[in-house]
Amino acid sequence: MIFIGGYVHGTVIVEFPTLIALSICYLVKRWVLLLSSYNIYLKNMDFHTNQANFGSIFQEYIIIEKNLRILKETLSIPLLLCLSCAFVNSYIMLSELLQLKIEPFILLEICTFSIMDLVSTTGLTICCSMIPENMLKIKITAGILLDRYQLYDVIKEKEILILKRIEGKNIIYLTAGDMIDIKKSLFLSSSGTLLTYGLLIYNLD
């Protein structure tokens, strides 16, 4: 029974969420590469010779932004599932570690699951936070181009307006259940919260 319980726990609480997290990371990474490529293209574009293609640049950004909003809605529940399983599993592991006597095989299982949780949660947080970071880079690039070309009166009013619209676009954060924005600071804050409240709840038992 112990073996069956451990297998079910490892499969449901650790293995499935880890596979989901890896799939999300792969999908998000492709969008990060697209945003990075767009930023490089925008940064290297010479508006002296490519003013005719200026409108298409903004249209491409609109399409990317629209698809990112769809991605945000699609990944909202899976992200909530992954993070919830990771936090529940971490609390279980913390409770087990606070026991006075731990069997060696249980300790090995705890360490294995904890490492898997740590890697998947950290990777998920870093990958998801790269989307707003790259969108911020695009906004910064648009601002730099705006200052550069507006200073020398090279581009027309239409091009200036387009750059201002790109610069003024909101940054999209992937969320877990539309409740938690996935940022790099999330990992540290959640770890501190888990440790603090986990110890408090354990001491109440």
Number of domains: 1
Number of strands: 2
Q: Can you tell me the residue ranges where pLDDT is under 50 for at least 5 consecutive residues?
A: none
* Amount of helix: over 70%
Largest sheet, described in full?
2 strands, antiparallel
Overall spatial form: elongated
Rounded to the nearest angstrom, the radius of gyration is 23 Å
Please give the order of strands in the largest beta sheet: 1-2
Q: Per DSSP, what share of the residues sits in E-state strands of 2 or more residues?
A: under 5%
Cα-to-Cα separation, first versus last residue: 25 Å
Give the helix/strand layout.
Elements: H1 2-44, H2 54-97, H3 104-151, H4 157-167, E1 175-176, E2 180-181, H5 184-204
Antiparallel strand pairs: 1-2
Keywords:
two-stranded antiparallel ribbon; 205 residues; 2 strands; membrane; elongated; transmembrane; transmembrane helix; Gustatory receptor; 81% helix; single chain; mainly alpha
Q: Could you walk me through the main structural features you see in this protein, from its secondary elements to its overall organization?
A:
81% of the residues lie in helices and 2% in strands. It is mainly alpha-helical and 205 residues long. It has one domain. It has a two-stranded antiparallel ribbon. The radius of gyration is 23 Å and the shape is elongated. The mean pLDDT is 77.
